[in-house]
Write a structure and sequence with these properties.
About 5% of the residues lie in helices and about 55% in strands. The protein is built from five helices and 38 strands. GO terms for molecular function: siderophore uptake transmembrane transporter activity; signaling receptor activity.
Length: about 750
């Protein structure tokens, strides 16, 4: 551990044990502390009270005073322990439709709250999504970026949203400590959110909700340690003030530095976030500003295995903590970003809203990429490339929600538009000669990067993207609110220009548009259950055909992926369950022979079809016993390939099943003690298009505990967790032919004080 990290951990721990100041502890329930999951409040309906009205504590408790009795001290421990409970809610932000309860919409959406993020000591967005049975995390090509797979389709980091806005989130790695919830929407969402600028989000998307001031004041300090030498801490303060507590402020700071459980790999992370909000009876305004810096030194990247015809490396041939990366390899990612949201009610039936977000990002790195050529010996080649990449993005969305009645039918009409502007500046320098390497017996070398494009010290423009859209929908509710039918569309225009490295001359120009319709149906046969159906599309930019084909220069319309889904939900507040059956067909580019000319034509006639089933559970099974998890079954097929060679074969890297289970148990005879456990299991993944070999199924187990107690009359929570018990050796993913090793056994410890 570095001196800075050691000092930070020492300061945090000393402050905790000292008790610091002596502020009054409020026992009022908030979204974080409530033992009963809060309902998602629909933003589509005008609010009848301020959004952040504090919960008043009419009976101040004696445990906040020096002469509190032991029994009252126990109440403090129990209340503080409740604040740390795992909480997964059904519902969230559905873009054009606003915030909705999961039971009322024809889509599958879940939200993971900030107490789960804190208790699991999550350092990246991928750590949070380890809890979701429908998501798997993998790595990007040649770097340390996290990619996510939902329903067998890619979700790039570029296409993760904040407050429903694309283009604002840091691209490669996300620090989750800044967010109050992480929302996962399963399925296509072109109507709900518009086309994702990175061209992914076909199987689902992720939306981040920043932390904002709640009803109860928070002053929390945390110190943490992760093997084999990472130390850090966090600070979280939240206050409401002014008449009727109309003003709110929240500040978060988190940092960690040191060597990870992977040999010679080092991470240095800093995240800062400030949120401000104000409301009256009709208007709500909130703004957040964030800074994130993540550095990785000597990181272990994915292995390129596309050149291997049949054999794959045995996972037991190398230790999970082994590092085949180069010590000189690094990435330095800095982002400044934020959002502004405004809502105003015009009477009791109309709400207008506007959102704006922006991001300025600077990325530098020197990457060592291993290409495996012999799976038995571990031999391969290692390339080297330095890269500079800067982004300046802006995004906005505005609309109106109106509630009107026509006879017995209630209408919720949503109309609005969105726009995204993205500018990318980049330069690179790479080695033309690959060095010999071996993943079982790594060797170090000095890179010689002589071939360059652009100036690394002053990157030039390489891309300029503009996405414009407008949407309109009507949700009709009738039969005593038991049936809701949604119909609508979004018109999306995608403009994309690419420029040559170094010269800045225009290389390609793309300008095309498409309509994305939606239809959804929800039926409530009984109060706490729903049956639903949806037909919705995903949307991504088509291609401009290259010069080597007969139809060179042809501009294709955007790819439209069509999804059909039926499902059922059950939600009684403390417990929720859902099942969904889906099919998504995604067009793909492919080449075909052009008659007998010996030439080829490029078309969009290729197709991938994913079918599957999702089963999810979350909530309190028995008193003191909580569960979150489920099962996903996927059948991902290549339906139409060049020459029919791989028709009917399974797509590379898509597991045939995924299972997740998280348990929390409050030990009844030790107040404040909670035992936690998690299992993650992933089915076999095909290693090549011909399906002649595959990655074996794997399972990983995590165990831990947390204990809430009093020190100087303040509640403290200590957490200990071991990920990958037994140091299981497994290849976690081979998605897009990039082979990723599973994480080694990792020990985590943290202690927090709520002052």
């Amino acid at each position: 551990m570095s001196l800075r990290a050691l000092c930070l951990s020492t300061i945090c721990a000393s402050s905790l044990l000292a008790g610091l100041a002596n502020p009054v502890i409020s026992l009022a329930a908030t979204d974080e502390s409530s033992p009963v999951p809060q309902k998602v409040k629909p933003s589509s309906a005008p609010r009848t009270q301020p959004a952040h009205t504090p919960v008043k504590n009419a009976d101040p408790t004696a445990e906040n005073t020096p002469d509190a009795t032991p029994g009252q001290h126990e109440d403090i421990v129990v209340t503080a322990a409740r604040k740390n409970r795992m909480y997964v809610s059904s519902g969230g932000d559905l873009g054009a439709l606003g915030n909705k309860k999961g039971l009322d919409v024809p889509f599958n959406i879940r939200s993971y709250n900030s107490s789960l993020i804190l208790n699991q000591q999550s350092q990246t967005l991928g750590d949070v999504l380890l809890n979701d049975p429908t998501v798997r995390t993998t790595m990007g090509y040649g770097n340390y970026a996290q990619l996510f797979q939902i329903r067998g389709f890619t979700l790039y980091g570029d296409d993760v949203a904040i407050d429903g806005l694309y283009g604002v989130t840091p691209r490669q790695l996300v620090s989750p400590q800044l967010y109050d919830s992480v929302q996962v929407l399963n399925g296509a969402s072109a109507f709900l959110n518009g086309a994702a600028p990175g061209g992914s989000a076909i199987g689902g998307n992720v939306n981040l909700i920043p932390k904002r001031a709640g009803a109860t004041d928070i002053t929390r300090i945390t110190g943490d340690y992760t093997s084999s030498g990472q130390g850090g801490g966090a600070f979280d303060i939240s206050r409401r003030f002014g008449k009727d507590h109309a003003f709110g402020f929240r500040f978060n700071a988190a940092g960690m530095d040191g060597e990870t459980a992977i040999k010679d790999e080092r991470h240095d992370d800093v995240a800062l976030g400030a949120a401000f909000d104000w409301h009256n009876d009709d208007t709500r305004i909130d703004m957040n500003m964030n800074y994130q810096k993540q550095q990785v030194f000597g990181g272990r990247s994915a292995i390129i295995v596309s050149s291997l015809a049949t054999d794959m490396p045995a996972p037991k041939a190398t230790s999970p903590s082994e590092n085949w990366g180069q010590r000189w390899a690094y990435t330095d990612l800095s982002y400044l970003f934020g959002t502004l949201n405004i809502e105003h009610d015009f009477g009791s039936h109309i709400t207008a809203y506007g959102k704006f977000g922006a991001q300025s990002g600077n990325e530098m790195g020197n990457y060592a990429t291993t290409t495996l050529t012999n799976s038995r010996t571990g031999d391969g080649t290692v390339g080297a490339m330095a890269d500079a990449y800067n982004v300046m993005n802006e995004a906005t969305q505005a609309g109106v929600r109106a509630h009107v009645n026509t006879g017995p039918i209630k209408h919720e009409i949503n109309a609005g538009g969105s726009a995204i502007w993205e500018e990318s500046d980049a330069a690179y320098s790479m080695s033309l000669v690959s060095n010999a390497g071996n993943i079982y017996h790594p060797t170090q070398f000095t890179p010689s990067e002589t071939y360059s494009g652009g100036n690394l010290n002053n990157p030039g423009r390489v891309a300029w993207n503009k996405l414009y859209s407008f949407f309109l929908s009507d949700t009709m509710t009738f039969w005593h609110d038991r049936i809701a039918l949604t119909g609508g569309f979004r018109y999306q225009d995608i403009l994309s220009d690419s420029y040559a490295y170094g010269t800045g001359t225009l290389s390609t120009h793309y300008d095309a548009a498409a309509f994305s319709p939606v239809i959804g149906l929800v039926i409530h046969p009984v109060k706490h259950a729903a049956l639903y159906f949806n037909r919705i599309q995903g949307l991504s930019a088509g291609q401009t055909v290259g010069a080597t084909y007969v139809n060179a220069g042809q501009v294709f319309a955007p790819y439209q992926s069509t999804q059909y889904e039926v499902g059922a939900k059950y939600d009684v507040g403390r417990f929720a369950a859902g099942v969904a059956f889906f099919q998504t067909s995604m067009p793909q580019g492919m080449t075909e022979a052009y008659g007998n000319t010996g030439q080829e034509i490029y078309t969009q006639d290729g197709k991938q079809r994913n079918r599957g089933m999702e089963l999810t559970f979350n909530g309190e099974i028995l008193r003191g016993l909580r569960f979150n998890g489920g099962l996903t079954l996927i059948d991902a097929k290549q339906v139409h390939t060049t020459g029919g060679t791989y028709d009917g074969k399974t797509v590379i890297g898509v597991p045939n099943y995924t299972i997740n289970g998280n348990l929390e148990y409050d030990v009844p005879f030790v107040k404040g003690l909670t035992l936690v456990g998690r299992v993650i299991s992933t089915g076999k993944q095909q290693f090549n298009n011909a399906n002649t070999t595959h990655l074996p199924a794997w399972s990983r187990f995590d165990l831990g505990a947390r204990y809430t107690f009093l020190a100087a009359k303040k509640p403290l929570t200590a957490r200990f967790e071991v990920d990958n018990i037994g140091n299981q050796r497994y290849w976690a993913s081979v998605y897009q032919s990039d082979l990723v090793m599973g994480d080694p056994e990792t020990f985590k410890f943290s202690i927090s004080a709520d002052l």
